[in-house]
What we know:
elongated, homodimer, DNA-binding
Amino acid sequence: MISHDSCEQDQSGAPRRLWGMTFWLLGxxxxxxxxxxxEQLTSAGMRRGFYGVLAxxxxxxxxxxxxIGRRLGIDxxxxxxxxxxxxxxGFITREQDSxxxxxxxxxxxxxxxxxLSRFDRAIAEAEDKLLTAFTLDERAQLVGLLERLVQPPQ
Amino acid sequence: MISHDSCEQDQSGAPRRLWGMTFWLLGxxxxxxxxxxxEQLTSAGMRRGFYGVLAxxxxxxxxxxxxIGRRLGIDxxxxxxxxxxxxxxGFITREQDSxxxxxxxxxxxxxxxxxLSRFDRAIAEAEDKLLTAFTLDERAQLVGLLERLVQPPQ
DNA sequence: AGGCCAACGTTGGTGCGACCAACGATAGCG
DNA sequence: CGCTATCGTTGGTCGCACCAACGTTGGCCT
Lengths: 154, 154
């Protein structure tokens, strides 16, 4: 149970004007979703942008910090902090790129791959909890609509 | 045009693993939507939680600060700051509730009503921009799904 | 009546995420 | 060679959500 005080996140009594407004609903949904998943994820040892970074390296191979950031829409300066954490957990390694000494070559470790699949399971679990009330069709609908919203057909 | 540097919000190159994950898509969608609307709204003189508060008072009439916060899922302490701003803009008035001296009776001013309808127009414009690629049916679908996500069982 | 608990508004502080400015180092190109 | 751009890094700002504590006030119970 959350509901210490303060917010209570009832929000069923919000003005009708707000229900039906996409930007409002998106904000609320994102807040609730993150709140719901965070509990699951932090208990799995996952922080900040861990998952996105690990998934990016896993899919595209070792890359420079700036490139990872560009793929994820994360600022270079914020990437530094994330990678510091990931490195101190032993999930990634940073070494100077031999072909361009400005770049760091960020690579996954074995522990990093293990963490990624642990996070995969934790996220799947959290999403299931978030979407209990939805049929598979509806989940696909939601994902499809959100994908188009995030990535407008160029 | 934003794209000063840093983020660039391309994110078309994000790993496939992330596309299809609700919590990730929700976060991105909310970020993009807010970013898109904020530009419109700040130019209309709207800040922070202005719209939600004004809309709440407009629909339910004058109310205590804590009640507005409860309806919107906003902490009491944050409400204070929002109402300070709204008051200094002349959009609301605070007076002590005569029946319960703990409460403040927060009421809309004429200027507040005017601001609310200005914000209404600005938001409608922003949402149209956000949802250009969507048919009316799809917009309704999206809103319906998000509503159920925000407002789970009963 | 008195005593206890809950709610109110307010202050102050925390943490997180996004963003921006600047630096030294390095690469590419004219 | 200079000029410009990119890289990683540091440090700082802003907004939002959250929490703890306080003094005030109301409601309730015995």
